[in-house]
Amino acid sequence: MKKNPMKKLLLMFCIWFKSSASYAACTAGLVATSSGGISFGNYSANSASDKTMNGTVTANCTLGGTLPSFTIALSTGGSNTFLSRTMNLLVVNTLDYNIYTTNGYTTVWGDGTNSTVTQSYGGGSGSVNFTAYGKIPTGQYVLPGAYGDSITITVTY
Q1: How far apart are CA 31 and CA 36, in angstroms?
Q2: pLDDT more than 90, % of the chain
Q3: CA-CA distance, 57 to 136, in Å (whole number)?
Q4: CB 134 within 8 A of CB 53
Q5: Beta 119-121 vs 153-156: how paired, if at all?
Q6: What is the pLDDT of residue 29?
Q7: Residues with Cβ < 8 Å from 129, sequence gap 6 or more?
Q8: How far apart, in whole angstroms, are the C-alpha atoms of residue 139 and residue 129?
Q9: Torsions phi, psi of 15, nearest 5?
């Protein structure tokens, strides 16, 4: 049976943090979740401005205790690029959007490659929230319908 290197790494972290009671519980129970994602609602290509909405990514310690230092990365979703993520309707119809780290909509929240950045936390409390700022550029004339995408949240500590 092949050993899982990530499981071994996690075990090493648990052992290393075991001497510090404030971190011991959380390394095994660190969870990042998004409450509902980003729901843009109705989109109009004729709008004078881009469609923007926010979502929240929460990292918390499910076993109590405090959080260690960590970073949170977001995947490209179905588009396989950070240049412009795309939401899909029936696979062939796409609507460009992206997720940013601030409401200035200039820095893409990604995995740290291709001019994107991750979000970081220095450790401390038992829970922390990060705002995900979503934007759909105006002027995209697409078929009406429910467009969607799935983003994977990766926590590294």
Answers
A1: 16
A2: 55
A3: 19
A4: yes
A5: unpaired
A6: 62
A7: 56, 57, 58
A8: 32
A9: -65, -45
Strands 119-121 and 70-74: antiparallel
Residue in this structure with the two tokens 């200035």, named with its chain if needed: 104
pLDDT in tens, 1-47: 443 333 222 222 222 222 223 334 455 566 777 667 899 999 999 99
Under 8 Å between Cβ of 43 and 95: yes
For the record, the structure tokens of 9 come out as 């790494």
What is this structure's pTM?
A: 0.79
Name the 3-class secondary structure at 25: helix
The CA-CA-CA angle for residues 91, 92, 93, to 5°, reads: 100
Q: Is 141 a residue whose pLDDT tops 80?
A: yes
